[in-house]
Task: inverse folding
């Protein structure tokens, strides 16, 4: 099954699908190309986070960041539960029909692209994108605080024109392809993620957890991100920025 999955992932350039569970190349660093930009949360009300899904979307690419954002608690906000748990999460797909993600899990999207509310954070995993999804990602990114990709979700960002002239990364098995198909993207290797002010890309699979924790840090500071990681019993430190 793993051989078949790897063959499927690498076979068609037009399919934006997930990376295989290979061992990371020796020497990969759990560091970031960090930027000083802080994300400003609203004084009150939720931070809406949209997770793009489709058939064959890779579960951990969106489920890992989903767990991060849902576990965030900010004690110094208003004492109400809704304020202290600031992120509100939803899935969005081309249409509202159920999709089959990796491993056969069936998901009913919360919204189609025609109905979804405007998010402040967009998570783009490895998935089978469509012109409608790409248009939605491009349009919504213009108003979002941050759009982040996980694994080969970077190809969707590139096709949407969001990585032009930027540094980016993706799953290590697909970095050569990203560089070849998008020569205007500076592909960075050996990094857990690469971030800019409003666009960020991460490597495969668990790298998305690191990037999501980094987004939490940029909104609410390191203590909140650290508390989230501790609650999750996540021991990786690749999310830590320089501050």
Result:
């Amino acid at each position: 099954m793993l051989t078949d999955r790897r063959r499927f992932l690498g076979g068609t350039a037009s399919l934006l699908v997930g990376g295989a569970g290979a061992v990371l190349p020796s020497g990969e660093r759990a560091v970031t190309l960090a930027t000083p930009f802080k994300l400003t949360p609203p004084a009150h009300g939720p931070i809406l986070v949209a997770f793009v899904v489709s058939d064959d979307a890779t579960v951990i690419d969106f489920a890992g960041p989903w767990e991060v954002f849902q576990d965030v608690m900010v004690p110094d906000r208003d004492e109400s539960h809704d304020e202290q748990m600031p992120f509100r999460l939803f899935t969005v797909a081309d249409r509202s029909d159920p999709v089959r993600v990796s491993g056969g899990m069936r998901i009913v999207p919360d919204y189609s692209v025609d109905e979804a509310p405007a998010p402040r954070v967009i998570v783009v995993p490895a998935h089978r994108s469509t012109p409608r999804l790409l248009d939605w990602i491009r349009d919504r990114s213009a108003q979002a605080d941050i759009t982040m990709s996980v694994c080969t979700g970077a190809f969707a960002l590139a096709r949407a024109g969001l990585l032009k002239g930027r540094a980016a990364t993706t799953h290590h098995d697909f970095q050569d392809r990203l560089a070849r198909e998008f020569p205007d993207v500076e592909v960075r290797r050996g990094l857990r993620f690469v971030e800019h002010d409003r666009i960020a890309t991460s490597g495969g699979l668990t790298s998305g957890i690191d990037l999501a924790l980094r987004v939490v840090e940029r909104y609410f500071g390191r203590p909140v991100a650290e508390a989230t990681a501790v609650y999750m019993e996540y021991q990786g430190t690749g999310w830590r920025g320089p501050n």
